[in-house]
Amino acid sequence: MTTHDVPRSTLRTADLVPTGSLGLRSRKMRALLSGLGIAIGIASIVSVLGVTRSSQSALLAQLDQLGTNLLTVANGTSGQGAEQILPTTATSMIRELPHVQSVAPTAKLASVNVYRNDHIAAGRTGGRSVRAADAALLGTLDGSLLAGRFISNDDSPVTVLGYSAATTLGITDVSGNDRVWVGGHWYNVVGILKPFTLAPEIDQAAIVSFQSAEHLLGYNGHPSRIYVRSDTEYTAGVAGLLGSAANPEDPSRVAVSRPSDALTAQLQVKQSGAGLILGLGAIALLVGAIGIANVMVIAVLERRTEIGLRRALGATRGHVAAQFLTESLILATLGGIAGIAIGAGVTLGMSVYRGWTTLIPPEALYGGLLVSIAAGAIAGLYPALRAAHLPRPMPCARPEGSAQTNSAAASPGTRGGAVCRRFRTVRSVPRPAGRLRARRR
């Protein structure tokens, strides 16, 4: 077989992974630190998408449970924060509107406070208030009791405490016949309400009946806040009629709101915040890709001998480029897998802590892996091309007289034989005498 019949060097696909991972296996700490940037970027993206989707699911479930058909009618507040009164006819007029399911009037008693006992100094209310209401309040708000029972429509001196009011007063159950000091009178606590997401003002209040408020607390019959539950599909239409129904003389003074809009606003805020954090995750991913590119360039400079040896043994430029590109892809892929695992763990931990259902979008999983692979390909392209274009070493860079040199020189018609002859010619040129004398000195 002549030298012209030597088969072309090939690199099998199965050898790419062992060859490409050689540098990573020999420099494990450098590989770990290089892949950390990709892992942090992917973990940020996956965790943000997962936590956002889980929290949104919890809010949507809460909206479905509470409903979006609850409306609130108020007449504004005074400079001291007291609720302005509505006309006495407001409740009856609202009940006459079409598509209204239930109406629950309440009145905040501005000059009445609730205390744990009669020894507490006046004014130390702890943010609590006293509200007069009727038995329809619990059903209209779709609320429930933590303990005890709700008030009835009579003048008995009993009260039901909102969740926050009961907590600040130190009352956790109603089995011990606890009493509170309300407006200069003792009131028996007969119930404690669970938290109201759509009516936080109820959480801070002690609820008494209208009859008891009129008999003992000086209530004048004017409501200050009315809760309206309408048919869901007609909520917007009912909201447009509530102002004129509650105060026909001056509808513009009536404020009508939908408490569920606050939860909807929370969804929008979470979405905008997620976009900001996703941008930070993308920056971390970019920094990680730059780190991989930097490490790969350094690896090319450090492994010039290895590259030269492979080229001398017959490896083509494409083989060398494939080796370094594969190394970059492996590094980025491992970082992406680690980032997905970290992001999923953060999402799971946050969901368990907050009591959410864990939801991770599928596109965050496979998308994160694809993005990490793309980042590795882009980061490894320049180092791979640089490694492939390193100059090939001379075929006979060995001492004269070696077997390979003699065999190359024995083939004067080949390129190797010509290079060997040139190499020997260069080495046989005598050194100048002046340089020899300088060395001897």
Structural overview:
With 441 residues, the protein is an alpha+beta fold. Helix content is 54%, strand content 13%. The protein contains 16 helices and eleven strands. Strands 1, 2, 3, 4, 5, 6, 7, 8, 9, 10 and 11 form an eleven-stranded mixed β-sheet that branches. A hairpin with a 2-residue loop joins strand 7 (179-182) and strand 8 (185-193). The model is unreliable at 396-441 (pLDDT under 50).
- Write down the secondary-structure element order: HHHEHEEEHEEHEEHEHEHEHHHHHHH
Instruction: Tell me about the largest β-sheet.
Output: 11 strands, mixed
The global form is elongated
- Category from helices, strands and their pairing: alpha+beta
Q: Could you name the ranges where pLDDT drops below 50 across 5 or more consecutive residues?
A: 396-441
Tally of strands: 11
Radius of gyration: 40 Å
Look at the structure and give the mean pLDDT.
Answer: 80
> Helical proportion?
40-55%
Number of helices: 16
Q: Between the first and last Cα atoms, what is the distance in angstroms? A: 54 Å
- What share of the residues does DSSP label as strand, in percent? 5-15%
Set out the fold topology:
Layout: H1 16-20, H2 22-26, H3 28-66, E1 70-74, H4 90-95, E2 100-108, E3 114-115, E4 129-133, H5 136-140, E5 145-148, E6 158-161, H6 163-169, E7 179-182, E8 185-193, H7 200-203, E9 205-209, H8 210-216, E10 225-230, H9 235-246, E11 255-257, H10 260-302, H11 304-312, H12 317-354, H13 362-388, H14 403-409, H15 415-428, H16 433-440
Parallel strand pairs: 4-9, 6-8
Antiparallel strand pairs: 1-10, 1-11, 2-4, 2-10, 3-7, 5-8, 6-9, 7-8
Helix pairs in contact: 3-10, 3-12, 3-13, 10-12, 10-13, 12-13, 14-15
